[in-house]
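ok so for the tutorial part 2 we go from a plain amino acid sequence to predicted structure tokens. step 1 is just haveing the sequence, like this:
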Amino acid sequence: MTVKRNKETIRRFWQEVFNERKFGMIDDMFAEDYVYHGAGGQDVRGRENLKGFLTMYFSAFPDLHAEVEDLFGEGDKVCSSAMCRGTHKGELMGMPPTGRQVAIRVICADHFVGRRVAESFELPDLFGMMQQLGAIPTPRG
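step 2 — the prediction. this is what the tokens look like for a chain of 141 residues:
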């Protein structure tokens, strides 16, 4: 029953928090001392900082939307793969808006303690995103 419940929590995160921007649900889904480990050694600690981190991306990509492609779990861990699409309409880490659309895959492994996510390891295709935004040249084939 626990794996099923944890998978449902992650599915709800992608739909209700990520797609519908219901940030208040983070307090119920994530541990107070939650830690996010992202690309390039980036760490975000705590629920409030997670909300700020998500807000940064939603400010840059106001129409950002995720479609869960795969979701599986075992024990106290759940892994998900989602295709995220959005239009770059706001500043992102000093990069002015380009108006370009991006489509990147995000793979995330979440560790639960009790009923809450305590730690996440996420691998977004930031290189692909930067290529789509024109910040990194794409190889010619």
